[in-house]
Design a protein that fits this description.
Length: 153
């Protein structure tokens, strides 16, 4: 992973304007770490992955909200009051752990809150994509909200 980050260093240093500002900020932090701190975090990630794998020894799927917030304005990097450039993952509470562990997940529409769409995240065990697709298809087949659309402002 460190070598993948280092491959982005020239882009960050020479063509920063090509990167999303939030991504550039995250890369600054990641590339600014010393190797000891970086590898300590890598081992914490492995520990998290092992604990999540243990969970899936007993369960086929995990269902969560996709996000802890409703939709927000396009062009915003994070919802108002729920994050910052220093903590962009602060509002990705439900999706981030599975990006870290590499487990498959899908998000399907599941209705509306205050007129705004919300999603259901379906997470499966390692190599469990078929289970996720089956669950997502069954959930979408029930879709009582299929005829509803959010209001455009």
């Amino acid at each position: 992973m460190w070598s993948q980050l280092n491959r982005l260093r020239p882009v960050l240093e020479n063509s920063r304007e090509l990167l999303d500002p939030t991504v550039a900020h995250m890369l600054d932090g990641a590339l600014g770490q010393d190797m000891g701190d970086y590898y300590a975090k890598v081992f914490q990630r492995y520990d998290l992955r092992n604990r999540v794998y243990d969970f899936f020894a007993d369960y086929d799927l995990l269902l969560t909200p996709t996000l802890p917030v409703t939709a927000f304005d396009a062009g915003e990097d994070y919802p108002p009051g729920r994050g910052s450039a220093d903590n962009v993952i602060g509002w990705l509470t439900y999706t981030y752990p599975f990006n870290l562990t590499g487990l498959p997940a899908a998000s399907v529409p599941c209705g509306f809150v205050d007129g705004l769409p919300v999603g259901l995240q379906i997470v499966g065990r390692h190599l469990g994509e078929v289970d996720i697709f089956r669950a997502a298809a069954a959930f979408e087949a029930a879709r009582p909200w299929a005829d509803k659309r959010p209001e455009l402002h």
